[in-house]
Design brief:
The chain is of the alpha/beta class. It is about 45% helix and about 10% strand. The protein is built from 15 helices and eight strands. The protein has an eight-stranded mixed beta sheet, with helices on both faces. Helix 6 links the parallel strand 3 and strand 4. Helix 6 packs parallel to helix 13, helix 13 packs across helix 15 and helix 14 packs across helix 15.
């Protein structure tokens, strides 16, 4: 728990240092939202495994905690530093083609929580993961006033309509920012959709936690209306794993696994009742912070899921490097407070099966730059 507190304190301190610079751009907007953003940062520190983010990485992204639409490339633990990108083109140029999964976090929407969730996923597949920051702006504050924190699945249409206020207030332009102020989907949803539509990128695994599942679902539904061919191609070789909320995906995706904690009442009230959980993690609630009891261990749970139900072979993957197997085995051996599944199969066998599904490839030697940027339609049928 000390490491979690240290990471949170360091991020808050670095965030405070950058406040004068951020106030030079949209001072009223930043002053009005900074207290809420700091609160969301604390929430993400409780709900996500932020200790897997190094102090250097936490300091690096502190200035962009609420940068909705920003994209990060997260390598596995110990295999390089995360990379923060403002646009999709920058993401591709800085190693985005190496990402083998796309993740979207929920809860507070901070860059720290998103990075921590993506690092857990990266450790599970032993490959880099792309993650989109949900951020926190005026639209989120207004939606929250209507109970958005508890009913995000039922207020999906409110936030996109209010995002034009963020644009008028001088929101920084990240991700797939629309040319016009009005848009039918939120910026994080548009960015996820653009990543999935980009032919330069391939994500065999899509995963989200909590509200992030709604963003992922909305992006796939929007893409299916615009490019059915691309969606059909994605469905043939893509596995979707939702954690903490069961949200309907387009019917063409039949390899969808919904994971819920046994005690997750918060996720239940935001889930679609007609969708049944494929996996219940014993004695787990909504949070994924392994420092706290009742957590849902993302890394171990994903390893077991991928071992039992491998992803279709990725033709673009390179040759397997045996050295990475030992590193993944060492990370998987870290003890957790509760077992995520009654099955007790050996980790070595599970990891070997995961490696067959995710062929490793050369790790991008990405280093953070000196400065970072400032700051579902109704379901048609059960998947």
């Amino acid at each position: 728990m000390f490491q979690t507190a240290f990471t949170l304190s360091l991020t808050q301190f670095a965030r405070t240092l950058s406040l004068p610079e951020r106030l030079q751009h949209s001072p009223l907007r930043n002053l009005a939202l900074e207290g809420l953003r700091q609160r969301n940062l604390a929430l993400d520190a409780l709900f996500y495994d932020v200790k897997v983010i190094t102090p250097e990485e936490a300091f690096y992204i502190s200035d962009s905690l609420a940068a909705e639409g920003a994209i990060m490339l997260i390598p596995p633990s110990g295999l390089g530093a995360l990379t923060l990108c403002e646009t999709i083109d920058e993401f591709v140029l800085r190693g985005g083609r190496n990402a083998r999964a796309l993740a979207v976090a929920g809860i507070g929407g901070s860059a720290l929580g998103a990075a921590a969730f993506a690092r857990n996923v990266a450790d599970a597949i032993d490959a880099p993961v792309a993650v989109v920051v949900s951020g926190y702006g005026i639209a989120d504050a207004i939606t929250e006033a209507f109970g958005g924190s508890f009913f995000f699945g039922h207020l999906r249409g409110l936030r996109p309509l209010l995002e034009s206020l963020d644009d008028l207030a001088g929101r920084p332009r990240f991700g797939a920012q629309a040319e016009t102020a009005a848009a039918r989907s939120s910026l994080d949803t548009r960015t996820v959709q653009a990543l999935l539509a980009d032919p330069r990128l391939s994500f065999p695994l899509l995963t989200g936690h909590s509200k992030g599942n709604l963003v992922l679902s909305a992006a796939l539904h929007n893409l299916s209306k615009q490019d059915k061919g691309r969606v059909a191609e994605l469905a043939r070789h893509t596995k979707i794993v939702t954690i903490g909320a069961r949200i309907a995906m387009p019917p063409v995706f039949n390899d969808v696994i919904d994971v819920m904690g046994e005690w997750d009442w918060f996720g239940e009230i935001n889930s679609r009742r007609f969708i049944h959980a494929d996996r219940r993690v014993a004695h787990a609630w909504h949070h994924t912070n392994t420092d706290l009891g009742g957590h849902l261990p993302v890394t171990i749970t994903l390893m077991e899921i991928l071992a039992a139900s491998p992803i279709a072979e990725d033709q673009k993957a390179g040759e397997h490097q045996a050295a990475k197997l030992g590193a993944a085995a060492e990370r998987a051996a870290i003890p957790v407070t509760k077992s995520p599944s009654p099955s007790t199969g050996g980790n070595a066998t599970a990891i070997e099966k995961v490696k067959k599904a995710f062929s490793a490839m050369p790790m991008p030697s990405t280093q953070p730059p000196a400065f970072g940027p400032s700051d579902e339609p109704p379901p048609t049928m059960q998947h």
